[in-house]
Amino acid sequence: MGWDRIAGGFCIIVGLSLVAGFLSQFRERGYVGWLGLSFLALAAAAFWSASNETARNYAMIVAGVFFVFSFYSAVQQTRERLAEIRRRHEAFEEQMLAMLQV
């Protein structure tokens, strides 16, 4: 059993765990699903590494594209979350000022 099979098996476990987590609990976090698909594509590349070089290259390209989607989605989610925290903080400040003025 080669290292490519072991790496592919680990990538499948991680990929399926991330996709299952996205489908069950983290639907609002798209980057989890994209990252899971990226790991599944990496698993395909690992399994095809010895037998079919063209398929391996395509799987690596797909994994890279999914990783870029995951990164972009994580950045967007972070921006939205920071904006939400900023709005809550401003609302809290307004409430505190209103309480102090009374």
Question: Would you spell out the secondary-structure blueprint of this structure?
Answer:
Blueprint: H1 3-24, H2 30-47, H3 53-101
Helix pairs in contact: 1-2, 2-3
Report on the architecture of this protein.
87% of the residues lie in helices and 0% in strands. The protein has a domain at 3-72. The chain has three helices and no strands. It is mainly alpha-helical. 25% of the residues are buried.
Entry keywords:
102 residues; 3 helices; elongated; mainly alpha; single chain
Short description:
The chain has three helices and no strands.
End-to-end span in angstroms? Answer: 75 Å
Chain-averaged pLDDT: 87
- Find the structural class using helix and strand composition: mainly alpha
Largest sheet: none
Number of strands: 0
Large-scale geometry: elongated
Helix proportion range: over 70%
Strand percentage, roughly?
under 5%
**Secondary-structure element pattern, one letter each:** HHH
- Compute the gyration radius: what is it? 21 Å
Query: Which parts are unreliable, with pLDDT below 50 for 5 consecutive residues or more?
Result: none
Continuous helix count? 3
